[in-house]
Write a structure and sequence with these properties.
Phenylacetate-CoA oxygenase, PaaH subunit, PaaB, Ubiquitin-like (UB roll), alpha+beta, elongated, 23% strand, PaaB_sf, 3 helices
């Protein structure tokens, strides 16, 4: 591989790869890869992450398109909602005609 090839690949965007297994219902993050475009990313993800025929569906997403919370924002995003009483079932009155709740 020449240094020109390495320079071109360094400019390729980074993709995150998600794979759904044969027995799974959801896609799971399995790794990352660089590719020139979306179609190449799917092909490379298939070649790299499904070598043993373990997947039924692949998602690839450009890393730059992912928006995520920061671990430092944990408390505002995931703190208990004790101050939001309307989220607790005691806030609601159960009608008498509802047999099971």
């Amino acid at each position: 591989m020449s240094t020109d090839d390495t320079a071109v690949r360094a400019d390729w965007p980074l993709y995150e790869v998600f794979l759904r297994g044969k027995r799974g219902l959801n896609h799971v993050h399995v790794g990352s890869l660089h590719a020139a475009d979306d179609e190449m990313a799917v092909r490379h993800a298939r070649d790299v992450y499904t070598r043993r025929n373990e997947g039924v569906s692949i998602w690839v997403v450009r890393s730059s398109s992912i928006v995520a919370s920061s671990p430092s924002e944990k408390d505002p995003y995931f703190a208990p909602s004790g101050d939001k009483v309307y989220r607790h079932p005691t806030f609601y009155e159960i009608p008498d005609n509802v047999p099971h709740m």
